[in-house]
Structure formats: structure tokens, C-alpha cells
Design a protein that fits this description.
The chain has eleven helices and no strands. With about 270 residues, the protein is mainly alpha-helical. The C terminus is likely disordered.
Length: about 270
């Protein structure tokens, strides 16, 4: 992977995500760099909508989340948040999903016997720092896959979680407001968040923790599970829910992301 990719994704308040092919990340990173700071939330959302569509999320719900240690304890909450997302209930989708991130993180930390995982009063930022630092060391010690890419992924996700997701709401450094304290403590009002981008960034945090859990499981995979009949049926149901939504606007379902065109390309 081009070393500019992690830097480019960090510049839009994100990170190298798991279960996404390197070529598409390199392509969008070139576009981010070429935009010279003008790759705005609309373009980020368009790109993320392309990644986190019905087919991918249905496959994860059917064949990855229920089969991953600790994540399986939250599979129903994740599925309901995804359903809310495709129904255009964007405030509910992200608010329902955000507690899952901390829950999975603390459970993984406890299972790994980490110091801060044993203390429910520990700082969430410190707890995630300990967890993801330990996961990086484990990946290097076991020489899992392309270890440098895993290191870049975990380093970027830790930056996202500590500097964006769990940052104090009044210090949030971006414009999309994907911030747990601001949303769950009510500091952000309706108009301050509730866009698909909030859901996409939050589900990517769930996915990084799914990946961290998977690193200690016998069967490892860096890919989204293949479509099965059950996953296909669920994806079709998500599309039906979108069409039947009482809130028809504000979602880029089916977006065909073209990296060579600007944000105005919604076709």
C-alpha cells in the first residue's frame, strides 16, 4: 500500500479500514491529495456510501459479526442500527451504534487481560490506546499477513478513536460531528449530526474492532464474506426498507462512486 494512503485518509478524519481493497483506497487517496484540502464531507460521504452499501453490510451481519468473538454479543444491536440507517433514521442509527464501539473495546480489553480493561472507570481513550497498541505488538510478533498494513490500520484507527470519536465534543476537529460525547450526551442537536457519514464512520470503527478480535481467532480473513442466499435476501430487504422510508431524502443508497469525478457526480 502506498505510504500516502494513511496520511490522506487521516486528513479527512478517517483511517485505513479493514475489509476494503487497497486499490480503491489508493485511488481515493490520490483524489484527496489532489483536492488540496477541498475533499469535503459530501465527497467523503459519497465515497463511504460506495463502500458500505447493502450487499457488504448484509454479508457482515450474516457471516462476520455473529462469528467473531465479543462482536457476536452485539450482533443484534449492529443489525438494528444498519436497518435504521437504510430506513433513513440517521440519528437513531448512529446513536444506537456508538455504544457498541466502547462495549466491544472494553470486552476485548478484559479478555486479553489488559490492565485498563479490568477497570470500568478507566479513561476510554487510555483503554483503547492500550488495546490497539497490544494488538499491533501481537500482529508483529505473530507476523500476521502484511504486518505493516495492519500496523497502519491500527495506528490510524487509534488516531480516529482518540482524536475524533471519543474527543470532547467542543474539541471535535472536523465538520461531520461523528463524536460519541456530543451525540450521546445531547450536546449535539438534530441539525448538528444525523447524516449518513456519521453512520459510515461509526460502522468502520465497529469493523476495526471486529478485525482486532479476529486477529486472535484461528480463522482469519481480510475480506468481506462472500454473498450467500441469506445475505442477498437481507440486502434486498434493506433496499426495500429504503424505498419504504418515511424520510426519503438524505441517503446515497446505490451511489456509483466515480473517483475521477467531483462530488456533483451522484449518478
Amino acid at each position: 500500500m502506498n505510504p500516502e494512503v494513511p496520511k490522506a485518509l487521516e486528513s479527512i478524519g478517517w483511517f485505513v479500514p479493514p475489509y476494503v481493497g487497497v486499490p480503491i483506497l489508493e485511488t481515493v487517496s490520490r483524489q484527496i491529495i489532489a483536492a488540496k484540502g477541498q475533499f469535503d464531507d459530501a465527497r467523503v460521504e459519497q465515497f463511504l456510501a460506495h463502500l458500505y452499501g447493502p450487499d457488504r453490510l448484509a454479508s457482515m451481519i450474516i457471516d462476520r459479526y455473529p462469528k467473531t468473538d465479543v462482536v457476536d454479543l452485539y450482533q443484534r444491536t449492529i443489525a438494528e442500527a444498519v436497518a435504521a440507517h437504510f430506513s433513513n433514521f440517521h440519528h437513531v442509527a448512529v446513536a444506537g451504534l456508538m455504544p457498541v464501539v466502547e462495549g466491544i473495546g472494553r470486552q476485548l480489553s478484559r479478555l486479553r487481560g489488559l490492565t485498563l480493561g479490568q477497570n470500568p472507570q478507566s479513561s476510554v481513550k487510555d483503554m483503547f490506546t492500550e488495546l490497539l497498541t497490544e494488538a499491533k505488538k501481537d500482529a508483529w510478533n505473530k507476523k500476521i499477513g502484511n504486518t505493516q498494513e495492519i500496523d497502519d490500520m491500527l495506528t490510524g484507527s487509534l488516531n480516529f478513536l482518540t482524536k475524533y470519536f471519543f474527543e470532547k465534543s467542543f474539541k471535535y476537529p472536523a465538520t461531520d460531528n461523528t463524536n460519541r460525547p456530543g451525540i450521546l450526551h445531547g450536546a449535539f442537536r438534530d441539525a448538528d449530526y444525523g447524516q449518513p457519514i456519521n453512520f459510515y464512520k461509526t460502522i468502520s470503527a465497529v469493523d476495526i474492532l471486529t478485525f482486532v478480535s479476529m486477529l486472535q481467532m484461528p480463522k482469519k480473513s481480510g475480506f468481506v464474506p462472500p454473498n450467500t442466499p441469506d445475505a442477498t435476501a437481507l440486502a434486498e430487504r434493506f433496499e426495500e426498507m429504503h424505498k419504504a422510508s418515511p424520510f426519503p431524502n438524505g441517503h446515497l443508497l446505490g451511489t456509483k462512486w466515480n473517483p475521477f469525478l467531483g462530488a456533483e457526480n451522484k449518478s
